[in-house]
Amino acid sequence: MEALIFDTTFLIDFQRERSSGKGRAHRFLKNREGHGAKISAISFGEFAEGFENPNDPILLSVADSYEILPINVAVAKTYARIIRALRLDGNLIGANDLWIAATALLHENPIVTRNVEHFARVPGIQVQSY
């Protein structure tokens, strides 16, 4: 099955729903069991910002539950291509989201986000809402 790359919005919503086990993020995962779960190192960093303790069990659980995709030269080249195109079109999105999008494009996996309109500006990206 196709792997999915989860945006920071998903990680935050999933965490907020954790006590009840109910909500959009939980329903999305339940309906897509068997898909590989990946996140960009950028998404992990954004999510980790919400934790005072870098060894918080929840944060460590996220690190263990998702394949964390690094920023490397190939991602950087994809980022450069995306930012150039969006800048020329006057459609820039935030820098961190550009890195996340570059990771998804390079790995040819859809990005799962609540921020569909934002990511949909990136040419060629596959976006799934939850």
List keywords for this structure.
5-stranded parallel β-sheet, single chain, alpha/beta, 130 residues
What would you note in describing this structure?
The chain is of the alpha/beta class and 130 residues long. It has a single domain (4-128), classed as 3-Layer(aba) Sandwich (Rossmann fold). Helices cover 52% and strands 11% of the residues. The protein has helices at 8-16, 24-30, 41-48, 57-65, 73-89, 95-107, 116-119, and strands at residues 4-6, 37-40, 67-69, 111-112, 127-128. Strands 3-2-1-4-5 form a five-stranded parallel beta sheet.
Could you give a short description of this structure?
This protein has 130 residues and is of the alpha/beta class. The protein has 7 helices and 5 strands, in the order βααβααβααβαβ.
Give the total of beta strands: 5
The largest beta-sheet arranges its strands as: 3-2-1-4-5
What's the CATH C level? Answer: Alpha Beta
Q: Beta-strand percentage? A: 5-15%
Secondary structure: elements and pairs:
Elements: E1 4-6, H1 8-16, H2 24-30, E2 37-40, H3 41-48, H4 57-65, E3 67-69, H5 73-89, H6 95-107, E4 111-112, H7 116-119, E5 127-128
Parallel strand pairs: 1-2, 1-4, 2-3, 4-5
Helix pairs in contact: 5-6
